[in-house]
Structures are given as structure tokens and as C-alpha cells.
Predict the structure.
Amino acid sequence: MVFGTKGKVINSQVQPNLICPHCNTQGKIKTSVVAKYFHLTFIPTFPTGKSGFSQCDHCKQTLEENQMPPAFRNAINELKNNSSAPKWMFSGVFLILGLGMLMSIFDKKNHAEDANFISAPVAGDKYHMKLGYREYTIYRVNKVTADSLYLDFNNYSVNKATGYHRIDKEENYSPGGAISNADAQKLFDEGKIENIIRD
Ligand SMILES: [Zn+2]
């Protein structure tokens, strides 16, 4: 991962009253504000501060803030106060917020769909079950009656919610037992049925 800070001039102003300490020319000093920002793999993420410099358009002398006479420093401070970091410097933050919102929308939609599946189960539905800490397995609906579900249990469990696919093989299922629709609903409401897969 590449990260670090970069700078970009965000504001400049020619100062009519300042006199260059090097060539004594008045009105040729341009003060500039640089906004520094942190980037992650070159995506600007957040601004980290501002610095300033001046340049004389006549003799080209450049002064950093710590080299400036007081009048220059006052001018640069005023310019800094009137310059704010552009929004693009927060691109990474917006990107992360946007992704988070998308994921949350997707999650809610998914959960609403699962709620429909649990209230009207059909044979073949697969329930991703969280049995306990680092213990996940799959129950498969074998048969549906008016008030119960007959389930096939997967003979294996995995230790990550991302591992369900590894045990989802026909030969891993064996007849489990029946539970009432109400109990299935309860398992869903308690979050023990994490996810429902319907082909
Ligand atoms: Zn000069």
C-alpha cells in the first residue's frame, strides 16, 4: 500500500504593498497557500494542513514561511484564513462513506428478502446457520408442510461465515428433523439463520 502526503497550491494572491527584500521591487510579490493532504494509493483522503510561500515575479526569489519578514507572514496568514481545502482532498473519505452506504443498502435489501423466504419457505431453501462462535453450518429445507419444515442437516461445519460454499455438497446432507414454522422464524429473528439461499 502506497501512502503519504502531497501538496497542492490552492490559492495565490499578488500583494501590491509588499516590497521584495531581495530586489526592493514593490507589488511583484505573489503569496501562495499550499494545502497538504494525506493520500492512500494516490487517492486523496483528508487534508493535513496548510503552508505558504512567496515568490517575487521580478527577481524570482522564493521564501518559505520561516524565512519571511513579518509583513509577508501577515499577508500569508490572511490568505490561509481565506483558503479552505477543496472537497476533492476528502475523496477517500467520500469513497469509504459511499461504499459503506451501498453495503448497508444491500444488507437491508438482502435481509428483507430473507424475511420473505423464512415466512414462505420452499423445499431446497438453504439456511446459513450460525451455531456458535466460529461454528457455521447449513440446514436445507427438504419438505414443507402447513406448519413445519423438514430439514436436512449438513454433516459438517466451518469456522468462518465465508466458508459455507466449502461444505455445500449433496453428499454432505443427511435428514435432520422437523421444526415448526414459528421456531424457524425465531431462529431467523435471533440471527442464527444468517442468510437464506434460494436458487
Ligand atoms: Zn525580488
Summary: Residues 120 and 199 are 14 Å apart (CA to CA). The pocket of zinc ion is lined by residues 20, 22-23, 25, 56, 58-59, 61 (CB under 6 Å). The two ends are 39 Å apart (CA to CA).
